[in-house]
Amino acid sequence: MRFIRAGALAVASIAMAGLVVGGISAGSAFAAKPHFTCSRLSGSLDTDSASLSGCGGNTGGSGTFPPTAFASGKGTITWANGKTTGIAISFKQLKKEKGCPSTAYSEYKAKGATTSDSTGSAPAGSKVKGYACLDTDTGALTAPAGKSFQV
Predict the structure, then answer these.
(1) What is the DSSP annotation of 16-67?
(2) Is residue 84 within 8 Å of residue 77, measured between CB atoms?
(3) Which of 30, 41, 45, 74 has the most Cβ atoms closer than 10 angstroms to its Cβ?
(4) What is the spatial distance between Cα 27 and Cα 33, in angstroms, rounded to a whole number?
(5) 71-105 residues labelled b (16+ CB within 10 A) or e (exposed)
(6) Which pTM was predicted?
């Protein structure tokens, strides 16, 4: 079960979370400046629900997504205002974890690109990156201290 949770997190972090962890080529979309950021990630693999909050752009300030949807490397965030952003992403577990709340968590980095966007804030091909902490025993997701999800 521990391996399944770890794999699902890697796929789900976003996201997220943030986001948000190898890269997906998006041509000129990999500019240095993000279109918007989300400051917080929370959720659970056990309930297959996660949220981003403190978000800029035309998002309504927050969004939700099912972490397991990213197991295939692609998923969609539904924003508070009803708009959506599709993301293709890959994950990497970090060897040196610096921002997770305790040693029970593993830290992941996500990188990728948007595949679709109805917000008008992050056109398809926009760079996505983020970090997430996963408690592999409980399935809890959170953002590492001081790190945000960037689109």
Answers:
(1) TTT--------GGG--SS-S-EEEEEEEETTTTEEEEEEE-STTTTEEEE-G
(2) yes
(3) 41
(4) 15
(5) beeebebebeeebbbbbbbbbeebeeeeebeeeeb
(6) 0.78
Tokens 């996500």 locate to 110
Note the pLDDT tens digit of each residue in 16-28. Answer: 333 432 222 233 3
The Cα 149–Cα 2 span in angstroms is 25
Tokens in use for 124?
A: 């398809």
pLDDT for 46 equals 92
Give the tokens for residue 132: 């997430």
Q: Measure the CA angle with vertex 63, ends 93 and 29; round to 5°.
A: 65
